[in-house]
Amino acid sequence: MYRPYHPPADPQLVRELTQTQQELRTHVRLLPLTHEPRFIAGCDSSFPTPETILSVFVVLRFPSLELVEKVYHTGPVEVPYVPGFLSFREAPNVLRAYDKLQQKPDIIMVDGHGIAHPRRMGIAAHIGVMLDMPSFGVAKQKLTGNFTEPAATKGSISPLTDKSGELLGEVIRSKDKVLPLFVSPGHRCDQATATRLTLACLRGYKLPEPTRLADHWAEEFKKELR
DNA sequence: GCGACAG
DNA sequence: ATCTTGTCGC
Length: 226
Prior knowledge:
Elements: H1 11-25, E1 39-49, E2 52-61, E3 67-76, H2 86-99, E4 107-111, H3 123-131, E5 135-139, E6 157-161, E7 167-172, E8 181-187, H4 191-200, H5 209-224
Parallel strand pairs: 1-4, 4-5
Antiparallel strand pairs: 1-2, 2-3, 5-8, 6-7, 7-8
Helix pairs in contact: 2-3
The protein binds two DNA strands through residues 3-4, 6, 44-47, 50, 53, 81-84, 86-87, 89-90, 111-113, 116-118, 122-123, 137, 139-144, 176-177, 182.
């Protein structure tokens, strides 16, 4: 398959972001949820133009999954995309979108990785720490770690581990014969909770409702801008 | 030195 | 992420 080429990143920038990332990491806490969520949020970002980012937050009632609110926020893109540092490019705008929510959620499902990251600080963990809110990530592509292909049937799961065997996340088949999802906890959440909620949010599509709707509305809001 | 690389 | 048509499989 075709492999993307990532242009060299500014060494100085990478050093600074790495330090910030490691500081944020000290705040991460992996714990089971204390109470069953009543509201779960989904968030995702898109780029109407190369220099503009549009972030969306949707809040669904849980476990009914009815959409109760959707908001978005747009702003200028100030940081380039560098593998492993996606959060610094998207999180600032995502947090502003979060501020616009009337109904704050009990937990946030982010489009991206949680601790299944080189330094255990994917965007889901980053956002969770910034808001000090429970969060977890659901990604469509692997960033780091190893795994064996889960069975082709919906609900099949296989672990995502690092070289030392540490569990980074779980690879979940959310729909029969469709590429699996990579689910990992972000902040104030554990793997069992992340996996359980992801499965509870499936409604016949590859993506669980929170991120699927956030994805959908990101596209709608984008059109709405022109 | 050779791959891998979220969105 | 984004740019894009037709096409294969259930």
